[in-house]
Every structure is written in structure tokens, then in C-alpha cells.
Amino acid sequence: MNRLTLTGLFLAALLILSSCLRDDLQPCPPLQVTLSVKDKNYFNVASAQKLGMAEPVDENLPFRSYVSTLYYVLHDEQGNVVAEQTNYAVENDNLEETIVFPVDLPYGKYVLTVWGNMQSDRPLGDDWHTVDEQDEDVADNDIYLTTDTLDYAYGTEQYRADLERTKGRLVIKAEGVPDNIDFSYKKVSGVYSVINNRFEYTGLTEVETRTDWPAPNEITTHTLLCPSEAENKTRLSVYFADKEAYNESVETTSGLSRAGGEEEQILIHPEDVSITMRRNEMTVLKYVYTERGMDIYLLVNDRWEKVHQMEMD
């Protein structure tokens, strides 16, 4: 056998061996992110519990007990979207939720943004960075968010991220109101409405809610709101009304009044107060009806403090 033949056989064997080795290579481990819920209870829920205004939730429930839907997007350092999952329902009972990205995703640095508890993708519009928290698909939802930079490389394929609550909760309780009062209206002015994936808030707005109450003297409202612009920079206006009489009323720019000007017969309108809304915190007020009018109390450090003339004692 001549030298040329031996060389040819050697090269053929080498090619076959290389082909076998390539076929035996396993795919690179995919990028995985395990999500958990950080804010299961509000920061001050213990204070509200002491005064009978809230109960803490169990911190060991399935993930979907706190966050029932997820939307996520992954983009590279140039801002290009490389993976996206539209809004979907979490259907398992695991304590955490794991995202596994495609195995063909190249190694590199990426930014992950995850939104939780949206009813649809619509509040995102064309920009997955921001959510309008007053959109009808999220206004009444407890929206969660996390964002993180991931350095995907061999040996660093697994990450963890904590979802955090984006809103606070305004709780209002009325005590001692006349039995005919079965409706409440409130307007909250000076809270943010838009949040981006860096937890930056913009767009001050007003939020109005109307609530019917079938049981007399059992009036407690819960409203999810973005934070205030600054301390005591949110104005709260509340009306308590007789529902039947209210149906005959008209709404004016200055408030609610009955046709014919008989406002005092159907409405209780306490003075407006200044409050502060914070992320993952409860702002709790109690309105107590007396012959003199409404006394207003704010929960501060485990106790009620009386509020008057847009100030607090």
C-alpha cells in the first residue's frame, strides 16, 4: 500500500471520528430563571392586623395564589427582543415558577423583565418597558414586577428573581353612619399611573371609585394605587350617600349634589385629607360618624391618629 493511499485512509478515519464526536455533543444547558414572590404581605400588615383592619396571608401558598398570570420578555445588550412570552395563566401549584429559554439562545448578557397579574398584554402597548396601571386590564389588579441582568455563559445558566408588588393599598372603613347610607364615592388625586421596568413612576392622575354596600354600617373599601409623588401630596375626597337618593342626584365638578340642592339629606361629605401612598404598603383610614360630623383617623405605627383640616395630629 503506497503512502498516498495511507494518507487518504487516515483522513477519512479522522473525518468519521470528528463526525461521531460532534454527534455526541450535548446541547448547552439552557438559560433558566426561577421566579419567587417577594411581597406576599404588605410591609405594615402587622400594624393593620393589631387594629382589626387586615389579616396577613399565608406565606407558603402556591406561586399562583399571589401571582396568577405572567408576561416576560428577554432582550440583548442592543435592546433586541430575543424571547417573549405573552400573558399566560400559571396553572400549577408549585411554590415557584421556572422559565426555561430555548437551547439555541447564544451565550451573552441579557435583560429579563417579568410582569405579573395582568389580565392581558394590552397595558404594555408597543412598549414592554412600561405599564399604565390605570388601564382597565390592570387598574384593579395587584401588579408585580421584576427585572434583572443575566450573564448567560457555561456554568452560569441558572438564575433567581423575586417579583415585587408595584402598588399600595388604600383601606377606608366607616363606622356609625346612618342605616340609609349604602353607597360610597371617593376621589384620590396626586398618585402616579405609569411604571417602567426599573420601578420608576410617572404620570400623575386622579382615581375615582364608586361602591354599593348591601349591608348597613359595614362599609370598608380597598383600592390599589400607585405611590404618591411625595409625602402627604395625595388628596383624598370621600362621600357617603343614600343609594336611592343618589340615583336621583346629579354630579357636578365640585362634588355630588341632589337635584334641588338638598345635598345634606343624602350625602355625608367629610373634609378632604392629605395622605401618602407607598409601594407595598397599606394606607388605612377610619371615618367615624358623630353628631358633629365625621372624625377621621389614620393608622400610624400601630395606633389611630386623628386627622383634621388636611393635617394630622
| Rg computed from alpha carbons, rounded to a whole number of angstroms | 28 Å
C-alpha geometry: elongated
What's the oligomerization state?
A: single chain
Average pLDDT number: 86
Identify low-pLDDT runs.
Answer: 3-24, 250-264
Q: Please indicate the count of domains.
A: 2
Order of helices and strands: HEHEEEEEEEEEEEEHEEHEEEEEE
Strand content: over 45%
Kindly, what is the distance between the CA atoms of the first and last residues, rounded to a whole number of angstroms?
A: 106 Å
CATH class category label of the largest domain: Mainly Beta
Largest sheet: 7 strands, mixed
Spatial sequence of strands, sheet with the most strands = 3-2-5-7-8-1-4
Number of strands: 21
Summarize the structure.
With 313 residues, the protein is mostly beta strands. It has two domains: 32-165, Sandwich (Immunoglobulin-like); 168-312, Immunoglobulin-like, CATH 2.60.40.2630.
What does this structure look like?
There is one protein chain. The protein has helices at 3-24, 45-50, 243-246, 263-266, and strands at residues 32-37, 69-76, 81-89, 97-100, 108-116, 130-132, 144-152, 158-165, 168-175, 181-196, 201-212, 219-225, 234-242, 249-252, 255-258, 267-268, 273-275, 282-290, 293-300, 303-308, 311-312. Mean pLDDT is 86; it is low at 3-24 and 250-264. A hairpin with a 2-residue loop joins strand 14 (249-252) and strand 15 (255-258). With 313 residues, it is mainly beta. The chain starts with a helix and ends with a strand. The chain is built from 4 helices and 21 strands. Helices cover 12% and strands 47% of the residues. The strands form 4 sheets. It has a 7-stranded mixed sheet, with no helix packed on it. Strands 6, 10, 11, 13, 16 and 17 form a 6-stranded antiparallel sheet that branches. A 6-stranded mixed sheet has the order 12-9-18-19-20-21. It folds into 2 domains: 32-165, Immunoglobulin-like (Sandwich), CATH 2.60.40; 168-312, Sandwich (Immunoglobulin-like), CATH 2.60.40.
